[in-house]
């Protein structure tokens, strides 16, 4: 006998899905803002003249980029309590996302910084700007502009990666989907709808990042 | 006392000795051209004067103060020494006006109004009052270079270094930039320029410094230097240009 589809079976659980969407959004927002912020700091540190700092950041980046996100998450949630650092599911999930995106965006932002012509920096130096001023006024905005599409993609990847956080019972969207499926056994319907929700969230996030990028790099053109 | 005094400047890039003991004094209001073949060390010498190149040995005094290699020393030095580059190096994300206003605001902590007033004045001086709101990529090379000059001048430097400021320009745009430099010279600005524009150097400069293989080979009054070069190297350099 063919499978009888029953999407109506999900309806009673709409509140759970909505809560999941909200939590995923929160995780993504924290991850994106703090992760990209961390990435900018990391990229700045990578260009530091003190080799120790640059190398430490290098170790962090390689450590994160060459290990699975799930293991990083487990380490933070199950491992850190051994050091007396006990985090809630949400805190652990958020921290894992920030740390993960921070490493990837360090490399992406660094690529943008390296693409700034040396002459720009020499011009700023010859205008008596110090290193912090040069980074803030001369380097960072053109650098981010160059790598904004790559950075946006990484933010979306990390947002989708938050589904893994269901494994430590952070009650995000995938956790909600698993939970509903466990109650009504409507796996196809639940994951079909969940897939759709992730798709919509990705598209929305991309649009938000695009609009934000346009705002950030817009020419207030009076010419 | 001279405004800039270089004494026994040595500089190597790896095994290559680029500057082999340079002594040079630049007085307030003096206009000096550094000439010589490519690889003679003239650009490197210019870049040591504002610390874009570190020196291996020797001393640099600017306005009576010895220049060290600490960051604070360099910042102090660069307040006195402006620079204009071959490739303009305008900041692409700022308008012409913002390019000129930026450093007075963030380095000298001038108010926006103050910085804007000076910037407008400087842009007017280089003939670009009507292009203030343009971005660098909306300007011709000659216009970009004039903005770069205005940007350097807005910091009110005591000496301006010009590193082949017309070499990246289309021939028809060279004159508009040279006209600005000439005007600065006439106003009494202290200028040190690396240039291949020999006729211009001859007309505008007080002193010509011919560099050869990392040393100052010959220097003096331009008319004199051009008319009767003392060394065969300068003679052949000048002759090569004429021919």
UniProtKB/TrEMBL annotation, chain A:
<feature type="domain" description="ABC transmembrane type-1">
    <location>
        <begin position="21"/>
        <end position="209"/>
    </location>
</feature>
<keyword id="KW-0472">Membrane</keyword>
<feature type="transmembrane region" description="Helical">
    <location>
        <begin position="69"/>
        <end position="87"/>
    </location>
</feature>
<dbReference type="GO" id="GO:0043190">
    <property type="term" value="C:ATP-binding cassette (ABC) transporter complex"/>
</dbReference>
<keyword id="KW-0813">Transport</keyword>
<dbReference type="Pfam" id="PF00528">
    <property type="entry name" value="BPD_transp_1"/>
</dbReference>
<dbReference type="InterPro" id="IPR035906">
    <property type="entry name" value="MetI-like_sf"/>
</dbReference>
<dbReference type="GO" id="GO:0022857">
    <property type="term" value="F:transmembrane transporter activity"/>
</dbReference>
<feature type="transmembrane region" description="Helical">
    <location>
        <begin position="147"/>
        <end position="170"/>
    </location>
</feature>
<keyword id="KW-1133">Transmembrane helix</keyword>
<keyword id="KW-0812">Transmembrane</keyword>
<dbReference type="InterPro" id="IPR043429">
    <property type="entry name" value="ArtM/GltK/GlnP/TcyL/YhdX-like"/>
</dbReference>
<dbReference type="GO" id="GO:0006865">
    <property type="term" value="P:amino acid transport"/>
</dbReference>
<dbReference type="InterPro" id="IPR000515">
    <property type="entry name" value="MetI-like"/>
</dbReference>
<keyword id="KW-1003">Cell membrane</keyword>
<protein>
    <submittedName>
        <fullName>Polar amino acid ABC transporter permease</fullName>
    </submittedName>
</protein>
<dbReference type="InterPro" id="IPR010065">
    <property type="entry name" value="AA_ABC_transptr_permease_3TM"/>
</dbReference>
<comment type="similarity">
    <text>Belongs to the binding-protein-dependent transport system permease family. HisMQ subfamily.</text>
</comment>
<feature type="transmembrane region" description="Helical">
    <location>
        <begin position="21"/>
        <end position="45"/>
    </location>
</feature>
<feature type="transmembrane region" description="Helical">
    <location>
        <begin position="190"/>
        <end position="209"/>
    </location>
</feature>
UniProtKB/TrEMBL annotation, chain B:
<dbReference type="InterPro" id="IPR050086">
    <property type="entry name" value="MetN_ABC_transporter-like"/>
</dbReference>
<keyword id="KW-0029">Amino-acid transport</keyword>
<dbReference type="InterPro" id="IPR003593">
    <property type="entry name" value="AAA+_ATPase"/>
</dbReference>
<dbReference type="GO" id="GO:0005524">
    <property type="term" value="F:ATP binding"/>
</dbReference>
<keyword id="KW-0472">Membrane</keyword>
<keyword id="KW-1003">Cell membrane</keyword>
<dbReference type="InterPro" id="IPR017871">
    <property type="entry name" value="ABC_transporter-like_CS"/>
</dbReference>
<dbReference type="InterPro" id="IPR027417">
    <property type="entry name" value="P-loop_NTPase"/>
</dbReference>
<dbReference type="InterPro" id="IPR003439">
    <property type="entry name" value="ABC_transporter-like_ATP-bd"/>
</dbReference>
<dbReference type="Pfam" id="PF00005">
    <property type="entry name" value="ABC_tran"/>
</dbReference>
<dbReference type="InterPro" id="IPR030679">
    <property type="entry name" value="ABC_ATPase_HisP-typ"/>
</dbReference>
<keyword id="KW-0813">Transport</keyword>
<keyword id="KW-0067">ATP-binding</keyword>
<feature type="domain" description="ABC transporter">
    <location>
        <begin position="4"/>
        <end position="238"/>
    </location>
</feature>
<comment type="similarity">
    <text>Belongs to the ABC transporter superfamily.</text>
</comment>
<dbReference type="GO" id="GO:0016887">
    <property type="term" value="F:ATP hydrolysis activity"/>
</dbReference>
<keyword id="KW-0547">Nucleotide-binding</keyword>
<dbReference type="GO" id="GO:0005886">
    <property type="term" value="C:plasma membrane"/>
</dbReference>
<protein>
    <submittedName>
        <fullName>Amino acid ABC transporter ATP-binding protein</fullName>
    </submittedName>
</protein>
<dbReference type="GO" id="GO:0015424">
    <property type="term" value="F:ABC-type amino acid transporter activity"/>
</dbReference>
């Amino acid at each position: 006998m063919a499978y009888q589809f029953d999407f109506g079976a999900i309806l009673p659980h709409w509140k759970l899905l909505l809560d999941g969407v909200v939590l995923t959004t929160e995780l993504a927002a924290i991850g994106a803002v703090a992760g990209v912020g961390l990435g900018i700091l990391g990229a700045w540190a990578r260009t530091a003249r003190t080799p120790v700092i640059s190398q430490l950041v290098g170790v962090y980046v390689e450590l994160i980029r060459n290990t699975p996100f799930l293991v990083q998450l487990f380490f933070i949630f199950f491992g850190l309590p051994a050091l007396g650092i006990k985090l809630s599911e949400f805190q652990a999930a958020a921290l894992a996302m920030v740390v993960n995106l921070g490493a990837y965006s360090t490399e992406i932002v660094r690529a943008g910084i390296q693409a700034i012509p040396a002459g720009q920096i020499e011009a700023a130096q010859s205008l008596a700007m110090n290193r912090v001023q040069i980074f803030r006024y001369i380097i960072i905005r053109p650098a981010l502009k160059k790598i904004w599409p790559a950075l946006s993609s990484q933010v979306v990847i990390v947002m989708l990666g938050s589904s893994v956080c269901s494994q430590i019972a952070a009650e995000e969207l995938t956790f909600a989907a698993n939970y509903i499926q466990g109650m009504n056994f409507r796996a196809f319907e639940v994951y079909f709808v969940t897939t759709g929700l992730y798709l919509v969230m990705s598209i929305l996030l991309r649009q938000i990042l695009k609009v934000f990028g346009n705002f950030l790099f817009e020419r207030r053109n009076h010419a | 006392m001279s405004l800039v005094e270089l004494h026994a400047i040595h500089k190597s890039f790896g095994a290559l000795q680029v500057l082999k003991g340079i002594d040079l004094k630049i007085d307030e209001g003096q206009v000096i051209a550094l000439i010589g073949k490519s690889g003679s060390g003239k650009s490197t010498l210019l870049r040591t004067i504002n610390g874009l190149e570190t020196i291996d040995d020797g001393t640099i005094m600017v306005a009576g103060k010895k220049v060290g290699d600490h960051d604070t020393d360099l910042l102090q030095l660069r307040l006195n020494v402006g620079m204009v580059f071959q490739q303009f190096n305008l900041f692409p994300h700022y308008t012409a006006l913002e390019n000129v206003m930026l450093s007075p605001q963030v380095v000298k902590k001038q108010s926006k109004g103050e910085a804007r007033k000076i910037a407008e004045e400087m842009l007017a001086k280089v003939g670009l009052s009507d292009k203030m709101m343009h971005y660098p990529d909306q300007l011709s090379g000659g216009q970009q270079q004039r903005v770069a000059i205005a940007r350097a001048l807005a910091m009110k430097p005591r000496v301006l270094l010009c590193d082949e400021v017309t070499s990246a320009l289309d021939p028809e745009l060279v004159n508009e930039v040279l006209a600005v430099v000439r005007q600065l010279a006439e106003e009494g600005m202290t200028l040190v320029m690396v240039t291949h524009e020999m006729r211009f150097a001859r007309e505008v400069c007080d002193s010509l410094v011919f560099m050869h293989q990392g040393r100052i080979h010959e220097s003096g009054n331009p008319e004199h230097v051009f008319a009767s070069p003392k060394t065969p190297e300068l003679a052949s350099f000048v002759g090569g240009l004429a021919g």
